[in-house]
Amino acid sequence: MQSSYSKIGIVQKPVGRDGALKIDVQDDFFDDFIASDHLFIKMNGAFVPWFIEEKWETNYLMVKFEEVDSPEDAAKFTLRDIFLRTSDIHSDSFLQKKESFGWVGFSILQDGKVIGTISEIVEYPSQLMAIVPLKGKQILIPLNEAFIEKIDSSRKYLYMNLPDGLLGL
Fold first, then answer.
1. Could you give the angle at the alpha carbon of 136 between the alpha carbons of 132 and 137, nearest 5°?
2. What spatial distance separates the first Cα and last Cα of the chain, rounded to whole Å?
3. Where does residue 159 rank: exposed (0-12), middle (13-18), buried (19+ CB within 10 A)?
4. CATH number of 5-90
5. Hey, what CATH topology would domain 102-160 get?
6. Residues 142, 127: contact at Cβ < 8 Å?
7. Which of 53, 82, 141, 152 is 20 to 30 A (C-alpha) from 45?
8. What is the pLDDT of residue 144?
9. What is the DSSP letter of 87?
10. Would you kindly state where each structural domain of the chain is located, as residue ranges?
11. Are the beta carbons of 46 and 2 closer than 8 angstroms?
């Protein structure tokens, strides 16, 4: 069975003489990073596991991989994306986003009427947005839990209570 991987951050640069690396981990994945004893880095088309010897936080996150003992060894990781197996990520916000991306093809209902069908979901810095074709336009609808009343996965319906004027009708 092939694993799927999710990007959680990026290696910024080597620091010091022992092969330590300054890294940046997205806030959603911080707890998963802390809980993990390894990270994956894509090298030559394959996700290679690198076991963590030590991790610490100063003004930024630092990690020291096993068998990486010099700045020269560490330099090969500069500006590479950091991954975890998707199955190892337990962040509530990530799981919600992952579920939301499965909503393409769901119909959005407001007041019992179908507004349209989600054609795509895009991630903006502050939230996920559903793209719904409506009257020849592409309408962006925030997938905010405050607007979602109910999800009927079997019928592929997303019941929403959207603010007046959002649809431009």
1. 50
2. 48
3. middle
4. 2.40.30.60
5. SH3 type barrels. (2.30.30)
6. yes
7. 53
8. 81
9. G
10. 5-90, 102-160
11. no
